[in-house]
Amino acid sequence: MRKLRHLASVEKNEEIFKAAANLFFQKGFKGTSMKDIAEAVGLPPGGLYYYIKSKEKLLYEITTTGINIALSELKEIEKSGLSTGEKFREAVKSNVKVLLNHKNYLLIYLHHKKALSPEYYEDYKAFRDEVELVFLRILKDGVNESIFRDDEVRLMVFLVLGMCNGIPQWYDPDGKFNIEEIANYYADAAERIVGK
User: Fold this and answer.
1) Cβ distance 146 to 90 under 8 Å?
2) pLDDT by residue (tens digit) across 134-156?
3) What's the distance, CA 155 to chain centroid?
4) Residue 69: alpha-carbon gap to chain centroid
5) Model confidence over 72-97: pLDDT tens digits?
6) 115-121, long-range: CB < 8 A, 24+ apart
7) CA geometry: angle at 169 spanning 138 and 119, to 5°?
8) Can you give the pLDDT at residue 107?
9) CB within 8 A of 100, min separation 6: which ones?
10) Which of 32, 63, 38, 33 is nearest to 51 (CA)?
């Protein structure tokens, strides 16, 4: 599994990611050229290659940004001194918040994952599997402590994560509920799913 590297400029990186994500939405991955992305961020046609080596590499970096943020936060929660029940709740809330704060990156992955080479796709899956493993370990601890029901733990992980992964499809930042409210609501629902 690759570790993401910081490119020459974090600020320019973010600008490039956002511009590319918007263009991928508007024109599709295949319909967007490196020249389009360079123009969107005010770089000369060849200037983008200083920051990123290919359009596919850019797609990979975009799709792994959100999941790396999620994984980093989940590992911090897992290592914390919280009780197992609190870890589970905080893990769900953290996952929801990352999904909503970085929803464009997830949606880009869902719509354009087939454009990734097998090598990049396998890397993405490795990050995704790590997220699942953190939830799996927390849930197993909860089962051992008799606070979660003794059931098919892996299926419960898939159920909870699948429930959360659908949020970016309908979330409207101008809608009735803010991110914190949604995170708490989903944490409540997840606790009912795994609770005894």
Assistant:
1) no
2) 999 999 999 999 999 998 999 99
3) 20
4) 7
5) 999 999 999 999 999 999 999 999 99
6) 115/29, 115/30, 115/56, 115/59, 116/56, 116/59, 116/60, 116/63, 117/56, 120/56, 120/57, 120/59, 120/60
7) 65
8) 78
9) 167, 168, 171, 179, 182, 183
10) 38
